[in-house]
Here is the input.
Amino acid sequence: MEYYLEDTINQLIEEGFELKKNAQNEFEKGKLFGYYEVISKLLNQAEAFGISSKFPRELREFNAESLLDKM
Here is the structure.
């Protein structure tokens, strides 16, 4: 289960940074806020359920707010 969740979060992070790099209008920026919300929720829930300890360190320490920096 944790591998599924880890892979999903990693994909969302990758897609989020790609969107951030190419966001050109308000809709795309809004989508980026959605990615932030989902990634934050998944990471918080993984921690609450004790799953995050099985994630690699870089994922455990990922700051979802970095998706929103310098927008």
